[in-house]
Write a structure and sequence with these properties.
The chain is α+β, with helices and mostly antiparallel strands. It is built from 13 helices and twelve strands.
Length: about 350
């Protein structure tokens, strides 16, 4: 009923779920795969998560620390020992990147020209990220270190650092270290193709489905910042990590690190999650939240680790999808964790 109510007047399709420590508690879907057609959207199709994938890159780094392949607090100078690094960036740490406090600002770096060049670049994503990192590291940051400034640059650079540490593409490392142990078999990168929902663009009252094969996502080099798609069940498998103490995939002490915001001015943001204290539904612990969009999709997840409850809502269009997802997420919280 909550899904029905949120879907009215909303995006072409929505999928949602309630998650507990052992995985899915409930899931549902409404709508059509693409505007102008009549094929229904289904739960076993792939849905784009946008920036909600950032928490996965952060969790991956935690796994690498546990396995002795990485270190918390590693500086950019240590992570990129052969790179020419601006003096102001040299002391910036991996934690600064993963908590968006590096001083690197998207609007000064990810210009339209950079994005267009990325779309046209046919080289492997790892090679693109390596060149991107080399360019960024050599420039003075335009923001102050320690101040929060949300940015895709931070996570793109973190992905490049992971590739330097492991000698493998980020896409392969995250599959081996995180997705495979969790049994997440549906994960892909970029806009989902095949018999999956398409993203949509709303211009005025005109809704247009965007062919996933034609620039329907950010460039491949930005993968660690959020280009992943997967089924609802697989996203639930990831969220359950925060409800069951890491589920044997991530150690409890690593999970605690991932949920601890750095000291400094607000907002409270740690390793892929915005956080709020004092919310009744969170049962005395932090309330985690994140939203993601590549402008054609929208995703929201809200997580209460102390209560052992998470909700998620996904849509294949942003303008109508964002408020619909937000309303549905709150409705599911009200149902499962009433005040």
């Amino acid at each position: 009923a909550a899904l029905d109510a949120a879907f009215v007047g909303g995006p072409p399709a929505m999928a949602a779920a309630v998650v507990g420590p052992r995985g899915l508690v409930w899931s549902g879907v409404r709508g059509i795969r693409r505007a102008g057609g009549d094929e229904p959207a289904t739960l076993d199709q792939r849905w784009h998560l946008g920036s909600n994938g950032k928490a996965m890159t952060a969790a991956l780094y935690g796994r690498l620390v546990e396995r002795g392949r990485a270190q918390w607090g590693a500086t950019l100078k240590a992570l990129f020992p052969d790179a020419a690094i601006d003096a102001a960036l040299a002391p910036v740490t991996i934690d600064d990147l993963l908590c968006h406090r590096s001083g690197l600002l998207d609007w000064d770096i990810l210009s339209r020209e950079v994005l267009m060049a990325g779309h046209q670049d046919q080289r492997p994503a790892r090679d693109q990220r390596s060149d991107f990192a080399a360019t960024i590291l050599g420039k003075e940051p335009t923001g102050p270190r320690g101040a929060f400034a949300y940015g895709n640059v931070n996570y793109t650079l973190a992905g490049a650092a992971i590739e330097r540490l492991t000698g493998q593409p980020w896409e392969e490392v995250i599959a081996a270290e995180l997705f495979t142990p969790l049994g997440m078999t549906s994960v892909g990168h970029g806009a989902p193709q095949g018999e999956n929902p398409w993203g949509h663009r709303l211009t005025g009252d005109q809704l247009a489905a965007v062919d996933p094969a034609r620039g329907a996502d950010n460039p491949a080099f930005m993968g660690p910042a959020g280009r992943m798609h997967m089924t609802v069940a697989d996203y639930a498998r990831f969220l359950s990590l925060y409800l069951n103490g890491g589920g044997g995939v991530i150690r409890p002490e690593t999970l605690a690190r991932l949920l601890t915001p750095p000291q400094g001015p607000p907002p409270a943001y740690a390793y892929g999650w915005g956080q709020q204290a004092g919310q009744a539904w969170a049962a005395g612990g932090p309330a985690l939240a994140h939203e993601g969009s590549n402008t054609l999709w929208h995703a929201i997840a809200r997580v209460a680790p102390q209560r052992g409850l998470a909700v998620l809502s996904l849509a294949n269009e942003r303008t109508r999808g964002a408020p619909a997802n937000q309303a549905l997420a709150q409705a599911l919280i009200d149902i499962h964790a009433p005040a």
